[in-house]
Amino acid sequence: MTLAGTGCGNLSLCLQAAGEKLRSIMENGKTVFTSRVREIIIKNLFAFSAFVSVLLLGLIILSLFREGLPIFKQVSVSGFLFGSAWYPTYDPPEYGIWPLIVGSLIVTIFACLIAVPFGILSAVYISEIAPARIKEILKSIIELLAGLPSVVLGFFGMVILAPWMQETFDLPTGLNIVNASLMLAIMAIPTISSISEDALYAVPREFKEASYALGATKYETIVKVAIPAAFSGISTAVILGMARAIGETMVVLMVAGGAAAIPRGIFDSVRPMTASIAAEMGEAPFGSGHYHALFATGIVLFLITVAFNLIADHISTKFKEEGSGTL
After folding, report:
1. Which of 27, 74, 181, 264 is within CB 3.0–4.6 Å of 111 for a Cys-Cys bond?
2. Any bridge partners for residue 87, and if so which?
3. Which fold has domain 77-322?
4. Which of 80, 79, 128 is nearest to 293 (CA)?
5. What confidence tens digit (pLDDT) does each residue in 121-164 have?
6. Alpha carbon of 226 to those of 232, 284, 315: distances in Å?
7. Residue ranges per domain, the chain?
8. What is the pTM of this model?
């Protein structure tokens, strides 16, 4: 075969062209190999991170149950959950956490009665009504509120709000259900507002345009189209806001009053479960009944939080097909 038959008029040029082609093939192969190795490394890194997260959560749950279950050798489950007296240092001690459960539920419910309207309405205003400039300002304020340390809110409720309530309403103390509920509502509003806003943004524009085409006003479109389409995400926001409130510790420890008794009015002091755990864990001797009772209280709080998350997931799944404004 001649050089002409190979399409090369010069041997050196043919060798140079072949070398460049071989180099190009090797570089492409190296690039593909490098990309594949990088993809495998990143995939394994994500898998390892997920495994570590699940492992840590499992170890926490295991530790919680290991330290909490021994209390049921001293008191029955029903006596622990529905007992009306929490006197763990008495002789004999009484480990009834019903007043603590009632305190947690009451401050959470009242907090949600305040936070849910403000959170949802602020989300509607930011996503559907506010001009771009005001929208950015309000979003920044809500994000700043979400980052506010709970101890700062507790300090405000204890030093500013409590004396004002005590003087204005002639109360024995300003550290009560109303005070704690207001502080928890301030903490829950950013969660409810942010998630609800995301759900409203996820509503397809075609839904709103179709509503306007049928002659609906902006108000009618928001109430009858946007909010129903985003109901799944808004419901999830409310449930997660409640979980955020019931799991808060520092605020209720500082402003709820610390009375482990079933309240008779909204201005009575209460001691939620989180406050009791935080206040008493440092004083409970290791391995004592009091120590195990506090861990068992943590189990109850953990199960309530899990229930909130399961309800949120159920609502999100059940209503997902009714609109695209879901999370």
Report:
1. 181
2. 94
3. MetI-like fold (1.10.3720)
4. 80
5. 999 999 989 888 898 898 888 888 888 889 999 999 999 999 99
6. 11, 52, 17
7. 11-71, 77-322
8. 0.81
Amino acid (1-letter code) at residue 104? S
Residues with Cβ within 8 Å of residue 32, at least 6 apart in sequence: none
Q: pLDDT tens across 45-73, in order?
A: 999 999 999 999 999 999 999 999 999 99
Q: Any idea which residue has 């340390």 for tokens?
A: 149
What is the C-alpha to C-alpha distance for residues 108 and 182, in angstroms, rounded to an integer?
10
> How many other CB atoms sit within 10 Å of the CB of residue 138?
16
> Considering the chain, what is the average pLDDT of its residues?
87
Q: What is the dihedral of CA 7, 9, 14, 20, to 10 degrees?
A: -90
pLDDT digits (tens, 9 = 90+) for 242-301: 888 898 999 999 999 989 999 999 999 999 999 999 999 988 999 899 999 999 999 999
pLDDT, average across residues 61-88: 93
Task: Tell me if 87 sits within 8 A of 94, measured CB to CB.
Answer: yes
